[in-house]
Design brief:
single chain, about 270 residues, alpha/beta, 7-stranded mixed β-sheet, two-stranded antiparallel sheet, globular
Length: about 270
């Protein structure tokens, strides 16, 4: 059983994406010219791998959840992308058989990995001057200025989740433990020996009650299956809380920037 078992359908449809500027910014910053290989670790439903696929000869998209890879492959077919290989594996299991890469990415998944081991694997798998990049959209944006709609009441949402699943944050069938060291510090003391940061703007959006519920079911801490036979009661309670906060059933989600922490192999 994987951390995200049963979430892939929701993940593909309800997860907010990273900044739309990600691919053009990477193409310019890392001088991508359509050649070489990309390795995307913890690819999930393939958002980063597919966004960057046209900038490489070949892409290897790796994830331990087969359902996630099925959704990613479906999306790749829909975009007419034929240069993406989907690999069912944990990042820590990869050897040298995949070749060498110009860029290795991890999008919102590094916290689930053995981070020191993945940094070593990435350093070994990059070509000289190749880049390892961690891509995150941290936190929930809260600046709702300029909108008549209220923000998603996340405190109330998480209170409902806690009512059904307990106060300790879940991670699949286990519990979540946040990294005790920043990614920047990890990269600095790794073989990479340093890091750079890049912040890219997000875009604001309007979210519905269904969007909020779908997002929760895409997570490891509130996946649909964790509620068991109480899932209908959970949905009903959450809908009532959300409609009380916004009778129209719509919420304003401010722009969330995408943060990139990256380093180049010497």
């Amino acid at each position: 059983m994987t951390l995200f078992e049963g979430t892939a359908w929701y993940y593909a449809r309800y997860r907010p994406g990273h900044s739309p500027d990600l691919a053009p910014a990477f193409a310019e910053l890392f001088q991508l010219d359509g050649g070489g290989q990309l390795l995307d670790l913890g690819t999930g439903t393939g958002a980063i791998a597919l966004a960057l696929a046209n900038h490489f000869d070949a892409v290897a998209a790796v994830d331990p959840d087969a359902s996630m890879l099925s959704e990613a492959a479906r999306a790749a077919r829909g975009r007419g992308l034929a240069n993406v290989q989907f690999i069912h594996a944990r990042a820590e299991e990869l050897g040298d058989s995949l070749g060498k890469f110009r860029l290795i990415t991890v999008g919102s998944a590094f916290h689930w990995m053995d981070r020191d081991q993945v940094l070593n694997i990435a350093h070994r798998a990059l070509v000289p001057s190749g880049v390892f990049a961690i891509i995150e959209s941290p936190g929930k944006a809260t600046d709702t200025s300029g909108s008549a709609l209220p923000p998603v009441p996340w405190d109330r949402v998480h209170a409902v989740v806690s009512r059904y699943l307990g106060p300790k944050r879940r991670a699949g069938r286990g519990f979540y433990a946040a990294p005790d060291e920043s990614y920047q510090d990890m990269m600095d003391r790794s073989l990479f020996g340093g890091h750079h940061t890049l912040t890219l703007p997000g875009v604001p959006a309007t979210r519905s009650v269904e969007d909020v519920i779908g997002y929760l079911f895409s997570t490891s801490y509130a996946s649909r299956q964790l509620f068991g036979d109480r899932v209908a009661a959970f949905e009903d309670r959450l809908r009532r809380e959300l409609l009380e906060a916004s009778p129209s059933g719509e919420f304003f989600e401010p722009a969330r920037p995408t943060e990139v922490i990256y380093s180049q192999r010497n």
